[in-house]
Structure formats: structure tokens, C-alpha cells
Amino acid sequence: MTPHGIVNAGLVQVPEGRHIFPKMTVLENLDLGAYTNRARSQRQQSLEFVFNLFPRLRERSEQTAGTLSGGEQQMLAIGRALMTVPRLLMLDEPSQGLAPILVKQLLSTVKTINQAGCTILLVEQNVEDALELAARGYVLQTGRIVMEGSGQNLLTDQCFREAYFGLAEMR
Fold this sequence. Notes:
Elements: H1 3-8, E1 11-14, H2 26-33, H3 37-41, H4 43-53, H5 55-59, H6 70-82, E2 88-92, H7 100-115, E3 119-123, H8 127-133, E4 137-141, E5 144-149, H9 151-156, H10 158-165
Parallel strand pairs: 1-2, 2-3
Antiparallel strand pairs: 4-5
Helix pairs in contact: 2-6
């Protein structure tokens, strides 16, 4: 499929590294997400949803995106993706380079997006926090699924804990 066709089908990715347009304003970046016919028709509702999720973006809507902090840029990248009205939102390492307090806020926001009806595919090195909010988790090793289950089951699985956290069962 063409990139346009993929977005029209409701599949959107927020790549690692944010990839915002630094010389454009926050609002201009968000508007770029609403370029499909379906997204354009819901632009105002999507914009309100994004601004409610990330009030800081509303405050900075006329500010040049390149002058935002790293956390604000990540909010903008996710907000722009949400402007497409996705059915599946794929997030690649969204917490990369963020302070621990911002990571908690970001993951809470990801949960809110999911509860609003958007499926989330999250690739995240912050394993414990990601699995706490995940309905389902997969462990990949050299491109193969070697373990899967609910987020909670993986967190309590002894083999998983030993492999990822170096925690052996106390005897």
C-alpha cells in the first residue's frame, strides 16, 4: 500500500525520534496530521481531543515546534498522529530520552488513548511500566516470538523476570 493508503486505513506510526517539523508551529504540525478526507472532516474534534490530552500544546499552539522541550515534542508527535483519527497507533520508544516523571505521564496518556477506542502497539524498552498497562505482551528474540501473554502474567512469570530483570526467585 502507499503511505497515504496506509494512513487512510487507520494505521499510523510515531517513529522513534519524534520527527516533527521544527520550523512550523505546533498548530501547523497538528494540522498536517489531518490531511486525509476522513481526518479533515473531524479536525476540530481531533484537535480538542489532542489539546485535552496535552494542554501544554494548546498553550504553545503558535510556538515554533523546534523550540519545544523533548517531552513537548513527543506530545506533538503523538498529537499529530492522533489528528489522523487512527484505528491503530504504533508507538516506537515514546519514552526515549524523557525524564522519569514524564514517562509516567506519557504512559498514562497512552492508556487514555486506548480507552478512547484506539488500539495501541507499543514498542518500549521501559518493560515494566509498559507491561503494567498492556493488555497483551510479546517477547521477541531475533525476530521470533519466544513468550507471550497478558502484561500482568508476563510481569509475574519467573522466566521472564529472570531474563529481563535479573531477578531469581528467593529461596
